[in-house]
Amino acid sequence: MTILDVRGISKRFGGLQALSDVTFSVGEGQIVGLIGPNGAGKTTFFSTLVGLIKPDRGSVALEGRPIVGLKPHRVAAYGMTKTFQNVALFGDSTVLDNVLTAGLLRHDVAAARHEARRCLDRVGLLAIAGKQADTLSFPERARVELARALCTGPKVLLLDEVMAALNPVEMREIMELIRSLRDDGITLLVVEHHMRAIMAVCDRILVLNFGKLLADGTPKEIASHPEVIEAYLGQSMEKHR
Amino acid sequence: MQFVQAIVDGLLIGGVYAVISIGLTLVYGVMGIVNFAQAEFVMIGMFVAWFAWSWLGLDPVLAAPLSFAVAFVIGWFVQGHLISRVLKAPSVAQIFLTVGLLIVFENGALLMFGSQFRSVTTPYQTTSLSLGSLFVSLPYLIAFGMSLTCGGALWWFMRSSWFGRAMRATALNPSAAQLMGIDAGLMYRIAFALGVGLTAFGGAIILPYATVSPTAGADYVILMFTVVVLGGLGSVAGAVVGGLAVGIIQALSALVFPIQLQNLVLFLVFIAVLAVRPQGLVGASR
Amino acid sequence: MTRWMIGLGALAAALLLPLSLDPQGYWIRVLTFTFLFAAMAQAWNIVGGLANQTSLGHAAFFGIGAYTSTVLLIKFGISPWIGMIAAAGLGAVAAFAIAIPTMRLQGHYFALATLAFGEVLRVVANVWTSVTGGASGISVPFSPPSVANYSFKLLRPHAYIALAALVIVTIIFEAIRRSAMGYRLRAIKENPAAAEVIGIDTTKVKLQAAIISGMLMAMLGTLYAQVAVFFDPDTVFSAGSVSIRVALIAILGGIGTPAGPILGAFFIIPLEELMNDWFSASAAGLSQLTFGLILIVVILWRPRGFVTLFKSLSARPGGAPA
Questions:
Q1: Are C65 and C222 within 8 A, CB to CB?
Q2: How far apart are CA B100 and CA B198, in angstroms?
């Protein structure tokens, strides 16, 4: 069953066409990867989905309900939220309070605290729940972001580079977590630069390039898609040379 | 006719408003600080000019460079030792540091000079030129002329001198400017000192038709903020347009409203601009 | 636990203090104003400390409160207690009206806009002579002393009422801080975009905080009117001696903490009185000058306020120990 339906989303910033006519839909319980070179519009696209950026054209439906034009908190209440690529924690608060605040969307303070502990446990950070968010390492912060987003009780969760700067062990843990979230019935959209991770964890991959949807298919199809290799993998190889 | 006369008066006064407000917008544009104490430099400039007139017999208009210099030195110190410490602090610390400065300047002046109002007498004080049925007050005209000169000099400085260009580069991207060998701290000092110097300069040139007292700054606070917000905080060109606009708004509202309500018009314009277009009507911004 | 002990100890001392002072003397008046200004700073703290919106226009609500109850008393003989409720209503309306255009603004812009709003009301109160009596001020008419009339022969009951107000406003502040609203306000303060994305209606929460703060401030305006008995627009709508002063008290004491406004008020108000007493004849402006200097020093060297001098009081906003 389709949970997220995106039709013809376009957004222009001054002279830059950040997104043009992006259309696709996602079935419930899928893990969908979103890849593309730097500046392809991935983060802009996530921000548009949750309502931080208003698209010039196009529609988004979450479980059949149109959400374009709604404020982000309404979108969150309907069940879709995202993490922030550059990490946007409440730095002065503790890890627990960061996550607890998200739990308040559907619970009172006491229940939100309980829920927050559960989410922290899932991302493996319960031990540092009392630490101040500012004092954490980058990988830890990215996980707090994840726990916080999770604590809103989402149906669709957009993860923006939560695996950046992780070591292989931590990366495997997060991939496990993503799969287990899917098993709980959460649909995930994942932006990630690490190709091997994304190929391994996703059921399906979308490729964005210059704001356009370039390809849409299984990891295997994408890996052998000539245009994708040219636009993305080619460039990435160049970068890694 | 009354209407045209009001426009002319408004333009002439507005030129001065532009000069006293440029410093406020310059400081915001370069380092993102709103200096609530800026208007106190109007008062400081007026006092310097008043003493130059009273002790040396200097015409306030000629004393204006002296006012500029005194304020420049104060500003250099204030920026280097105080403001520089809160550049990265939360806005509440920035706001209240400059509010603290405002309190110190106003009451420091009160302690030193007492609360009485002082004014100067100049030979041209009551002279008006008549152009057909229009009257142009000579002190207004002189102040406007000085403002033009001063604005032109600033424009040249920002466009053509190395300091001006370095300052604009710092405003756009402090870390990149630093990499190119520009001392951002020095640029901030120059910007702040220059900004308050201009404000004091403006204070001196209005002295022939205004009175000075320790609370003189308070009369200009909202006015100056209206000027820079109309033009867009951070935009020097905007401050010029804003200054002229505020001058005209004041002159026109004087035709319609009793004196107590004239400030109200200004406040309402100010709030409306902030609410509808906080980046300013002219649009250029930081 | 120690925080509770300190709180209870301070409350006991505050209850006893008025008894030890001359019930009609100078110092009980100072104490009353200290309680009152602490309560005002605490009300400001809801917006300025929790929501991080530096309002420089809280005199607007304070003045509305002072005039509402006094005008109702003069024109209709309505008890100031009822007047205080009316003041709360008008304060809420004013807070709503001010919040709508200023809500989107942050930092300096918000401070500027609220400053201008306060000034607008000051000008209006000066001009609207038929209701406010204009620039020449207004006197609270004499009513026979009784609790129902909110009229007393001595200052002592006023001191206790001001203390009660301080306790109530502090409890409201602390309740908000610990509630879901407190968590939401902290989230908005630190990252408004992230707060929205995790489901916080930032507009609504800020509006709620502004209205609560404005209501309380207006009610305290009524208290002030009853103590001061005479006031004019330039006093109660003053940017300097109301709006900036209450913010300054909260900031000096420790912004965003429940103890901050109380510490700040007990430092500033008595000191101000003492200095006015010592210096007023010889050097006008010296006490204000000193305050300016203290403010600068505190901001540069103790940006989190005096509260950080007392370890047990300076709980981090999130509740974790500092």
A1: yes
A2: 21
Tell me the nearest-neighbour CA distance from C79 into chain B, angstroms.
33
Q: What is the DSSP string of A167-221?
A: -HHHHHHHHHHHHHHHHTT-EEEEE-S-HHHHHHH-SEEEEEETTEEEEEE-HHH
Contact C299, B93 (CB under 8 A): yes
DSSP chain A: -EEEEEEEEEEEETTEEEEEEEEEEEETT-EEEEE-STTSSHHHHHHHHHTSS--SEEEEEETTEE-TT--HHHHHHHTEEE--TT----TTSBHHHHHHHHHTTTS-HHHHHHHHHHHHHHHT-GGGTTSBGGGS-HHHHHHHHHHHHHTT--SEEEEESTTTT--HHHHHHHHHHHHHHHHTT-EEEEE-S-HHHHHHH-SEEEEEETTEEEEEE-HHHHHT-HHHIIIIIHHHHHHH-
Dihedral sign of CA atoms C192, C193, C196, C198 in order: negative
For residue C299, the distance in angstroms to the closest alpha carbon of chain B comes to 6
Tens of pLDDT, residues C101-154: 888 887 888 888 898 899 899 989 998 988 888 888 999 988 888 888 888 888
Element (H, E) at B30: helix B2-31
Q: Classify the phi-psi angles of A68: left when phi > 0, otherwise alpha if psi is within -120 to 50, otherwise beta.
A: beta
> Rounded CA gap, A208 and A22, in Å?
9
The burial class, CB within 10 Å (0-12 / 13-18 / 19+), for C107 is middle
The Cα B157–Cα B151 span in angstroms is 10
Helix ranges, C77-201 (H): 80-102, 107-127, 129-132, 156-178, 180-190, 192-197
Query: Could you report the per-residue pLDDT of B163-175, keeping only the tens digit for each?
Result: 888 888 888 787 8
H helices, E strands: number in chain C:
14, 2
Chains linked to A by 3 or more Cβ pairs within 8 Å = C
* CA separation, residue B209 to residues B120, B121, B213 (Å): 8, 9, 14
Provide the ipTM.
0.89
C295 and B106: CB-CB below 8 Å? no
When pLDDT is cut at 50, 70 and 90, the band that residue B31 belongs to is confident
- How confident is the prediction for chain A on average, in pLDDT? 88
Say whether A90 and C190 touch across the interface (CB within 8 A).
yes
The encoded tokens of residue A33 equal 């990867």
E-state strands within B104-205: 128-131, 134-137
Kindly report the length of chain B.
286
Residues in chain B within 8 Å Cβ distance of C299: 86, 89, 93, 96-97, 100
Asked if C194's CB is within 8 angstroms of A89's CB, the reply is: yes
User: Chain A window 17-76: which residues touch C at a Cβ cutoff of 8 Å?
Assistant: 50-52, 71-73, 76
Task: For chain C, give the number of residues.
Answer: 322
> Do residues C151 and C145 touch, judged by C-beta distance below 8 A?
yes
Q: Give the number of other Cβ atoms within 10 Å of residue C286's Cβ.
A: 18
Global pTM?
0.87
- Would you put residue A34 in left (φ > 0), alpha (ψ -120 to 50) or beta? beta
Radius of gyration of chain A (CA): 17
pLDDT band at C317, cuts 50/70/90? very low
Residues in chain A, overall count: 241
User: Which residues face A32 on adjacent strands?
Assistant: A189, A204
